[in-house]
Amino acid sequence: MLTIGVTDCSKYSNYSNWIISGSDDIEIIKLSPAKANVEDLKKCHGLLLTGGEDVNPQFYNKPEYLKYCYADDVNETRDEFELQLLELAIMDNLPILGICRGMQIANVFFGGTLIPDIPSWDKPSHSKLLDGNDQYHQVQVDDSSWLSKVLTQKQGLINSNHHQSVDKVGELLKISACSPDGVVEAIEWKEPDKKSFLCMVQWHPERMNDQESPFVRNIKNTFLTASKEKSV
């Protein structure tokens, strides 16, 4: 049985259902600050960091950015919990997939910083549409990146629903995809050889309209394959 740890969030079931869809041999462990169950990660073969609240800027030494965050959407307890999970996962060479906030908290873990509000940094909004649905836009993938080998294509259509993004990239990491307006859409190991699986994306593959897109299917399948190798 393959066991995947999935971090708790308001839309937790979207992520857990996406991971187990089409498979009968995957068990999900909910990793939640409410349970303080960091140690449960030791039972897992892979870690999925989900979307959700803004990361408190105090964790990347920019407390003055707090005014750009949504006041009711900052959760320091979750931040601390997920930073602990990342420390343990990296120590144990666990495959890690980060989605939206998941990418952002991972970048902070590696010493990077965030843009706390994209429009305030003079870039077009990447937030949801007025009707509440995700907006969609193109993404450009770095030809030389590990991600390009996973996706087998240099560009594509992805969904978008966020107001924060990666600014300074964390130590040991590099940008692997950007939107046409320059917002970071994916990060990965700077030198992936002999390192565990690490894929961080800003879009939401778990709810994209086209679930057969390489920007969904290939990412999920590569993550699960890496997790299965860890389980052996």
Protein model, in words:
InterPro entries: Class_I_gatase-like, Peptidase_C26, PuuD-like. One of its GO terms (cellular component) is cytosol. Pfam families: Peptidase_C26 (PF07722). With 232 residues, the protein is α/β, with parallel strands linked by helices. It has one domain (2-231): Rossmann fold (3-Layer(aba) Sandwich), CATH 3.40.50.880. Helix content is 24%, strand content 23%. The chain has helices spanning 12-20, 76-91, 101-109, 146-151, 217-231; strands at residues 2-7, 26-31, 46-49, 96-99, 114-115, 135-141, 155-160, 165-166, 173-178, 184-189, 198-201. A 9-stranded mixed beta sheet has the order 2-1-3-4-11-10-9-6-7, sandwiched between helices. The chain has a two-stranded antiparallel ribbon with strand order 5-8. The longest helix has 16 residues, at 76-91. The mean pLDDT is 97.
Which helices and strands appear, and what pairs or packs with what?
Blueprint: E1 2-7, H1 12-20, E2 26-31, E3 46-49, H2 76-91, E4 96-99, H3 101-109, E5 114-115, E6 135-141, H4 146-151, E7 155-160, E8 165-166, E9 173-178, E10 184-189, E11 198-201, H5 217-231
Parallel strand pairs: 1-2, 1-3, 3-4, 4-11
Antiparallel strand pairs: 5-8, 6-7, 6-9, 9-10, 10-11
GO molecular function: gamma-glutamyl-gamma-aminobutyrate hydrolase activity
Protein name: Peptidase C26
Organism: Solitalea longa
Query: Assembly type of the shown chains?
Result: single chain
The second-level CATH architecture is 3-Layer(aba) Sandwich
Q: What ranges have pLDDT less than 50 throughout 5 or more consecutive residues?
A: none
Overall morphology: globular
Q: What is the element string, with H for helices and E for strands? A: EHEEHEHEEHEEEEEH
What is the SS-derived class?
A: alpha/beta
Protein name: Peptidase C26
Pfam family, one: Peptidase_C26
InterPro entries: Class_I_gatase-like (IPR029062), Peptidase_C26 (IPR011697), PuuD-like (IPR044668)
Organism: Solitalea longa
